[in-house]
UniProtKB/TrEMBL annotation, chain A:
This is IBH1-like N-terminal domain-containing protein. The lineage of its organism: Eukaryota, Viridiplantae, Streptophyta, Embryophyta, Tracheophyta. It comes from Brassica carinata. Residues 18-78 form the IBH1-like N-terminal domain. Keywords: Nucleus, Transcription, Transcription regulation. InterPro entries: bHLH_AtIBH1-like (IPR044549), IBH1-like (IPR044660), IBH1_N (IPR059002). Its main location: nucleus.
From TrEMBL, chain B:
This is BHLH domain-containing protein. The keyword Protein biosynthesis does not apply. InterPro entries: bHLH_dom, bHLH_ZIP_TF, HLH_DNA-bd_sf. It comes from Brassica carinata. GO terms for molecular function: DNA-binding transcription factor activity; protein dimerization activity. It is found in: Nucleus. Residues 431-446 have a biased composition (Polar residues). One of its GO terms (cellular component) is nucleus. Residues 431-453 are annotated as: Disordered. PROSITE patterns: BHLH (PS50888).
Length: 158, 453
């Protein structure tokens, strides 16, 4: 079975894709009237953060990854949108969650617990899949950080 | 990545800095210059002599050549800084500065040691160059520090200026972005009324960036410490919980497990998979090569993910503050900011040059001087061309900018980027007009690049 594994693909789209998505989301945010009010800093920060994560999820391939799906689902929940994912996966993940609850006895499972809490959608994955998703997640996160850093550098006063 | 590790090794303690090897010391120097340059920018530019001496001594001590002798010959602040002695307020501040150089230099993800991090992971959050952030509340200590820092800044580190030796591309970028920012408009209106009490902007305008830098640093440290404590508590709780569940599960019946892809008898296969993927992760996470064993590696990975998430949060905070002040100019953003990744030295040149540049001139100069960090060749060409360009529509400047930026990339990227950049311009109609008119020269640019390549 080990030989039957297809090569793990952790290619992440280019930086511009991330940049594009993030800028689009930011411009959308900006169009909201309440966005630029200076009093609600925390709200603004949260919105931007959420926009960052959602745009990252979209840039990373939408629903093709578990964590991005979970992110989008989480975001949609807050806005009460209806998000449709294929139901079959849902059932599998639910079952897996149940089995995983019983697992964390070994040392590595405990660590995996921590990782599961960090990576969105991690609770529903088996450990090997979790690690793969984490790798992809890390790549996307670092891309997103780079994009945001560039943005901030560019926007900060010269 | 190795550079980052290198820097990490160098920055971990201020006391170690005197023993830095010469290869990292220029790096350190750049960070020092960057940080100090931030200090300088906001303060009036009168430069007393002793600042220069201070700089010299900094160099000497950092280069580690007979540090003690040089330090003794240097002015006292440096001495006390590196020997760790407390002293006047500015010594304290300098020590803070130097000790925090790691944070400062961390803009591009170089991992310095985090002071509050007990697990010793190498990841810290990015520190901005000099944006004044009002979003953070500080303590009264900050005002105190600001006062100290202001008197420090008055005799501060001018003279580094924009001339930074490009040691590696990353650091060049770091120093360039700071060096090229003009003094921040310290009179920018503050939009956060709740922070009036702690905001020294009305009182001591020059210190604000530093105050905010300190605020940010301390706040990040606090956050990190808090999170460490929280995670440790969580681990404790989880372990207790696990003990309970284990007892329960052992007593209870084992229900038939639902069909999962990997069946439990294939433990070895599973473990193999896991180890295989761990190797993948090892490459991704910086600093994981030394660590062996799953548990430690997982720790590292977890810390890295946490730090990345914190970075995102932090940057979003920063963005939110920056956003209020500036006009969110999409095309300018797309052009200038997002793509300075390919060749940092070229970016240095591009960023330092004036706004209006011709694309083909960029091509020429880039071919001619791939490693030249000076702008001499470009400038005379720029000015002549900029005049002619100025006669045309002013908004074309944005597009020339974008195109000049894009010309740093190989040709096939250009089309997509330019199209993306133009796709963004549905905001204003005038931009669309200009975009269509500009398609001609933009199409010429990639062919130009290709011909020269």
């Amino acid at each position: 079975m080990a030989s039957a594994d297809k090569p793990i693909n952790t290619d992440v789209p280019e930086k511009d894709v991330f940049a594009l998505h993030f800028l689009q989301s930011l411009s959308n945010l900006r169009r909201q009237n309440t966005f630029n009010s200076p009093e609600k800093t925390n709200d603004r920060v949260k919105k931007i953060k959420k926009a960052a994560y959602v745009s990252m999820a979209r840039a990373a391939g939408g629903t093709s990854r578990l964590w991005s799906r979970a992110l989008l689902r989480r975001a949609a929940k807050e806005t009460n949108k209806v998000v449709r994912f294929s139901r079959r996966k849902k059932r599998v993940t639910w079952l897996r969650r149940r089995s995983n609850r019983r697992d964390p006895v070994e040392e590595e499972e405990k660590e995996a617990e921590r990782l599961r809490n960090l990576v969105p959608g991690g609770g529903a994955m088996e450990t090997s899949k979790l690690i793969e998703e984490t790798a992809y997640y890390i790549k996307c996160l670092s891309m997103q950080v780079k994009v945001m850093q560039c943005l901030v550098d560019g926007l900060s006063p010269k | 990545m190795e550079n980052e590790l290198f820097m990490n090794a160098g920055v971990s303690h201020a006391s170690e800095m005197t023993s830095l090897s010469s290869s990292t010391s220029p790096a350190m120097l750049n960070w020092a210059s960057m940080e100090t340059h931030q200090v300088e920018q906001s303060i009036t530019r009168d430069v007393p002599r002793d600042c220069f001496y201070f700089e010299k001594s900094t160099e000497q001590s950092i280069f580690g050549s007979a540090p003690s002798s040089h330090v003794s010959s240097s002015p006292t602040p440096l001495n006390s800084n590196f020997s760790g002695g407390g002293g006047a307020g500015e010594n304290y501040v300098i020590r803070e500065l130097v000790g925090n150089l790691g944070y400062v230099g961390d803009i591009y993800g170089a991992p310095p040691a985090s002071i509050g991090n007990s697990s010793g992971s190498c990841y810290a959050t990015p520190m901005m160059s000099s944006p004044p952030l009002d979003a953070f509340s500080g303590d009264s200590r900050f005002a105190e520090r600001a006062a100290r820092f202001s008197c420090l800044g008055n005799r501060s580190f001018n003279g580094r200026g924009a001339e930074t030796v490009p040691i590696n591309g990353e650091l060049t970028r770091v120093s360039s972005t700071s060096a090229l920012k003009p003094p921040p408009a310290a009179n920018r209106p503050v939009n956060l009324p709740g922070k009036e009490k702690l905001n020294p902007r009305s009182v001591l305008i020059p210190q604000l960036p530093h105050l905010l830098i300190y605020q940010r640093k301390l706040k990040r440290r606090k956050i990190r410490i808090r999170r460490e404590v929280e995670t440790q508590k969580k681990m404790e709780r989880k372990r207790n919980h696990l003990i309970h569940t284990k007892i329960l599960s052992m007593s209870g019946l084992d229900e038939a497990k639902p069909p999962i892809v990997t069946v439990s008898p294939n433990e070895s296969v599973r473990r193999e998979k896991i180890s295989e993927r761990m190797k993948l992760l090892q490459d991704l996470v910086p600093g994981c090569n030394k660590v062996t064993g799953k548990a430690l590696m997982l720790d590292e990975i977890i810390n890295y993910v946490q730090s990345l998430q914190r970075q995102v949060e932090f940057l979003s905070m920063k963005l939110s503050s920056v956003n209020t002040r500036l006009d969110f100019n999409m095309d300018a953003l797309m052009s200038k900011d997002i793509f300075p990744s390919s060749n940092n030295q070229q970016v240095l040149r591009l960023e330092s040059s004036s706004d209006i540049l011709l694309a083909d001139h960029h091509c020429h100069t880039l071919q001619l001087n791939p490693n030249d960090s000076s702008n001499n060749i470009m400038n005379p060409m720029e000015t002549s061309e900029s005049r002619s360009f100025n006669s045309q529509l002013p908004t074309l400047a944005h597009f020339t900018d974008s195109i000049s930026q894009f010309s740093t990339f190989p040709g096939d990227d250009l089309h997509s980027i330019i199209h993306m950049g133009f796709a963004q311009n549905h905001i204003s109609e005038s931009n669309q007009v200009h975009s269509t008119s500009f398609q001609g020269p933009s199409n010429q640019v990639p062919s130009h690049m290709k011909a020269e390549l």
